[in-house]
């Protein structure tokens, strides 16, 4: 048995994971996999590189595969209940009401709205019928009888009659005192006398008297057991098993009704086999990723995990922008089980009906805080609203939300709004940097370091100061700002040389900064500094090719904007450089988390200007959003520039992480002693696991005591046996 199988993972997936040399689940995986397999909503808040992708992909694949397999094998178990007499119907119910597979227990966790349900079959004629409903979880509930014309909110129109926990009976929205209130563990007997046209109730065996005279116009109608719940749960017994209380004289169990008097609920029969068989373009899981690269990466992981999932095979599909939607629509029509998508294209195809949500039972938001910050909150709400909360085979929608920086107000609000009693898998309780990442800052001070005054060549700057009179000798804020830009190019080269970096990811603030640095590194180092860019202005194919070149070590450096900050997994990457700190503090954690993944060590160096730096800031007011925009006025003057105060950003990041980030000198020598002296960046820590002997010493007295206690317990037990 593989280690993953011990957590409930099926052998087909366990073997695939084993083949990837994942011998043990990571901490987040061992917590999350059983939770997701068990049907829960989960918030995964573990640090970068801790294996969150596997933590949700593996259980989702498992459940989707099992669902598709059941359908293929003809195990339409849930479906068949829709034609089994006297079950609560999976189809004639409100969309937030869950029903157990045996069709005998209903639950709604919706706090604000009522959700109701009717049974698969009802009775007509002149007989007298009885069933019991027990409150199994406190909340608001009403139970009784309804015709098939009634709405599901029992007792609010003239076609249904209900008795509620607050001690009120209701028909046609008229609520009157009746009997007494009831709550958890109370058993309500529901009596229907069709001959006399009367409905009565019992509570724990006590008859509460006639509640309703059935309206004459409904005399020839069939009546169905019905319930409506608000954050409550009820269990039903139609007479298939023993009743808790004696059936009142003259009544029979509903289940024993003469077949000629039993009528199928027409609303429940909508559930034809056709409905169970999902349309080809109705996936069972939707995973949303904030960037194309990340969507592609998650998609590739799914492909690896599903390697041994045969008969049926799982059809995953990558739905991202920058590709022909016509082709995507054709592919979706061929059939899809899991969609990995970027938000824009997904919404496009959803709104045109090319992706159906009818059978979706997993809704995953990877890098959820990032999605919200990019303004996709509304879209997430809209999609969530369209997904049925219970699938047609009776399973509840599961929502999984993931990020290394989930401790964010908006995420918590969203979880409250959309998730169903979610469990936090949160090993640290706050946003944290993995121990495998060494991170430090280098202050770039153009007043102390005047080398910029005599540079023979330097990185092309972003042009915000073209209209300013900046040159050595003019001691203005603009000159210092320009100086910082030049110095940062030099410090970057120095960092590369000092640490003999042969692989690093370098983050710049803007696309133009990326392009300029790319040119400069080529100019300074030629093939020694081979590099490529990844940012939003590069064509999709170039982005893809560049990332591949970097992953396959054909080039040494990947220069990118924050599009690559989150999630990208480049195995064994030893170094990253921040040319400028990110505008968004949570992105610091994500950027530096590109190194120090999967237990390998990594070094992250951030260059921080001591003086204000004027930078581009193209907001919504900028027509071209930066393309060929040369408006160097400040935002306050309707321009596209701002003064960037990096020490403030640094302070924000430090406050967020609750630590002071180590500063190193301008020579960028990182004193290894401050860490543990044995680090080779890009490799696993050399000295892990070597101190087990100390552990043994520490644990010995406790283990001895335990052994002693065990012995005593066993002796007592043996003595008792002999007595
Ligand atoms: N159980 C495991 N054993 C060994 N390696 C693993 C295991 N789980 C994940 N990995 C590896 O760890 C790396 C990081 O995993 P993953 O990309 O899922 O991290 P993450 O938590 O999503 O990080 P981020 O927050 O940056 O997105 C990947 O290279 C993955 O292959």
TrEMBL record:
<feature type="short sequence motif" description="Q motif">
    <location>
        <begin position="2"/>
        <end position="30"/>
    </location>
</feature>
<dbReference type="InterPro" id="IPR003877">
    <property type="entry name" value="SPRY_dom"/>
</dbReference>
<keyword id="KW-0347">Helicase</keyword>
<dbReference type="InterPro" id="IPR014001">
    <property type="entry name" value="Helicase_ATP-bd"/>
</dbReference>
<dbReference type="GO" id="GO:0003724">
    <property type="term" value="F:RNA helicase activity"/>
</dbReference>
<dbReference type="InterPro" id="IPR001870">
    <property type="entry name" value="B30.2/SPRY"/>
</dbReference>
<feature type="domain" description="Helicase C-terminal">
    <location>
        <begin position="479"/>
        <end position="672"/>
    </location>
</feature>
<dbReference type="GO" id="GO:0005524">
    <property type="term" value="F:ATP binding"/>
</dbReference>
<keyword id="KW-0694">RNA-binding</keyword>
<dbReference type="InterPro" id="IPR043136">
    <property type="entry name" value="B30.2/SPRY_sf"/>
</dbReference>
<dbReference type="InterPro" id="IPR014014">
    <property type="entry name" value="RNA_helicase_DEAD_Q_motif"/>
</dbReference>
<dbReference type="GO" id="GO:0004527">
    <property type="term" value="F:exonuclease activity"/>
</dbReference>
<keyword id="KW-0269">Exonuclease</keyword>
<dbReference type="InterPro" id="IPR011545">
    <property type="entry name" value="DEAD/DEAH_box_helicase_dom"/>
</dbReference>
<protein>
    <recommendedName>
        <fullName>ATP-dependent RNA helicase</fullName>
        <ecNumber>3.6.4.13</ecNumber>
    </recommendedName>
</protein>
<feature type="domain" description="DEAD-box RNA helicase Q">
    <location>
        <begin position="2"/>
        <end position="30"/>
    </location>
</feature>
<dbReference type="Pfam" id="PF00271">
    <property type="entry name" value="Helicase_C"/>
</dbReference>
<dbReference type="Pfam" id="PF00622">
    <property type="entry name" value="SPRY"/>
</dbReference>
<keyword id="KW-0378">Hydrolase</keyword>
<feature type="domain" description="Helicase ATP-binding">
    <location>
        <begin position="268"/>
        <end position="424"/>
    </location>
</feature>
<keyword id="KW-0067">ATP-binding</keyword>
<dbReference type="InterPro" id="IPR001650">
    <property type="entry name" value="Helicase_C-like"/>
</dbReference>
<keyword id="KW-0547">Nucleotide-binding</keyword>
<dbReference type="GO" id="GO:0003723">
    <property type="term" value="F:RNA binding"/>
</dbReference>
<keyword id="KW-0540">Nuclease</keyword>
<dbReference type="Pfam" id="PF00270">
    <property type="entry name" value="DEAD"/>
</dbReference>
<comment type="function">
    <text>RNA helicase.</text>
</comment>
<comment type="function">
    <text>Acts as an ATP-dependent RNA helicase, able to unwind both RNA-RNA and RNA-DNA duplexes. Possesses 5' single-stranded RNA overhang nuclease activity.</text>
</comment>
<comment type="similarity">
    <text>Belongs to the DEAD box helicase family. DDX1 subfamily.</text>
</comment>
<feature type="domain" description="B30.2/SPRY">
    <location>
        <begin position="66"/>
        <end position="243"/>
    </location>
</feature>
<dbReference type="InterPro" id="IPR013320">
    <property type="entry name" value="ConA-like_dom_sf"/>
</dbReference>
<dbReference type="InterPro" id="IPR027417">
    <property type="entry name" value="P-loop_NTPase"/>
</dbReference>
């Amino acid at each position: 048995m593989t280690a993953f199988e011990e957590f409930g993972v099926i052998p087909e997936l366990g073997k695939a994971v084993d083949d990837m040399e994942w011998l043990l689940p990571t901490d987040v995986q061992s917590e999350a996999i059983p939770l997701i397999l068990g049907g829960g909503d989960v918030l995964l808040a573990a640090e970068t590189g801790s294996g969150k992708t596997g933590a949700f992909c593996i259980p989702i694949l498992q459940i989707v595969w099992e669902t598709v397999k059941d359908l293929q094998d003809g195990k339409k178990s849930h479906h068949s209940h829709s034609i089994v007499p006297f079950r609560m119907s999976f189809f004639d119910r409100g969309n937030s009401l869950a029903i157990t597979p045996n069709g005998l227990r209903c639950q709604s966790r919706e706090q604000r709205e009522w959700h109701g349900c009717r049974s698969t079959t009802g009775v007509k004629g002149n007989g007298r019928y009885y069933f019991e409903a027990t409150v199994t979880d406190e909340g608001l509930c009403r139970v009784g009888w309804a015709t098939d014309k009634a709405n599901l909110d029992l007792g609010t129109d003239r076609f249904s009659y209900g008795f509620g926990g607050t001690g009120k009976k209701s028909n046609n929205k008229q609520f009157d005192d009746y009997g007494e209130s009831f709550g958890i563990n109370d058993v309500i007997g529901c009596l229907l006398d069709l001959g006399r046209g009367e409905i009565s109730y019992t509570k724990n065996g006590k008859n509460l008297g006639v509640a309703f005279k059935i309206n004459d116009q409904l005399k020839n109608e069939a009546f169905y057991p019905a319930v409506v719940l608000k954050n409550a749960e009820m269990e039903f017994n139609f007479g298939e098993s023993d009743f808790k209380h004696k059936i009142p004289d003259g009544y029979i169990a509903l289940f024993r009704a003469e077949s000629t008097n039993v009528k199928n609920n027409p609303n429940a029969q909508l559930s034809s086999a056709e409905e169970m068989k999902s349309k080809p373009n109705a996936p069972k899981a939707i995973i949303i990723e904030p960037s194309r690269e990340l969507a592609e990466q998650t998609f590739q992981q799914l492909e690896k995990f599903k390697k041994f999932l045969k008969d049926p095979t799982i059809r995953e599909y990558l739905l991202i922008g920058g590709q022909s939607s016509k082709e995507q629509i054709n592919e979706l029509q061929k059939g899809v089980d899991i969609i990995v998508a970027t938000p824009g294209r997904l919404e496009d195809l959803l709104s045109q009906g090319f992706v159906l949500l009818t059978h979706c039972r997993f809704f995953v938001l990877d890098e959820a805080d990032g999605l919200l910050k990019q303004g996709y909150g509304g879209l997430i709400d809209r999609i969530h609203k369209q997904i049925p909360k219970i699938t047609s085979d009776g399973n509840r929608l599961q929502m999984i939300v993931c990020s290394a920086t989930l401790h964010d107000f908006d995420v918590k609000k969203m979880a409250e709004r959309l998730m169903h009693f979610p469990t936090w898998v949160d090993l640290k309780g706050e946003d944290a940097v993995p121990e495998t990442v060494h991170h430090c800052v280098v202050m770039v001070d153009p007043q102390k370091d005047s080398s910029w005054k005599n540079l023979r060549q330097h990185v092309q700057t972003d042009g915000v100061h073209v209209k300013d009179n900046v040159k050595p000798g003019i001691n203005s804020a603009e000159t210092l700002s320009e100086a910082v830009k030049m110095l940062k190019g030099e410090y970057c080269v120095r960092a590369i040389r000092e640490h003999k970096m042969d692989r690093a990811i370098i983050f710049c603030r803007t696309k133009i900064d990326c392009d300029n640095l790319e040119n400069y590194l080529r100019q300074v180092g030629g093939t020694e500094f081979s590099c490529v860019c990844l940012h939003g202005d590069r064509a999709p194919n170039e982005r893809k090719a560049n990332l591949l070149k970097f992953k396959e070590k054909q080039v040494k450096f990947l220069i990118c904007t924050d599009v690559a900050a989150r999630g990208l997994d480049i195995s064994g990457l030893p170094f990253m450089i921040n040319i400028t700190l990110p505008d968004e503090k949570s992105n610091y954690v994500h950027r530096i988390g590109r190194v120090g993944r999967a237990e390998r060590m990594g070094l992250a160096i951030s260059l921080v200007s001591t003086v204000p730096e004027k930078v581009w800031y193209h907001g919504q007011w900028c027509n071209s959003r930066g393309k060929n925009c040369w408006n160097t006025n400040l935002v306050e003057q309707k321009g596209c520039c701002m003064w960037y105060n990096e020490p403030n950003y640094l302070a924000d990041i430090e406050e967020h992480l609750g630590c002071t980030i180590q500063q190193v000198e301008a020579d960028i020598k990182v004193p290894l002693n401050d860490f543990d002296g044995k680090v080779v960046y890009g490799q696993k820590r050399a000295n892990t696991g070597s101190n087990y002997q100390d552990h043994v010493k520490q644990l010995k007295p406790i283990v001895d005591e335990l052994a002693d206690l065990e012995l005593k317990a066993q002796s007592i037990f043996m003595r008792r046996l002999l007595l």
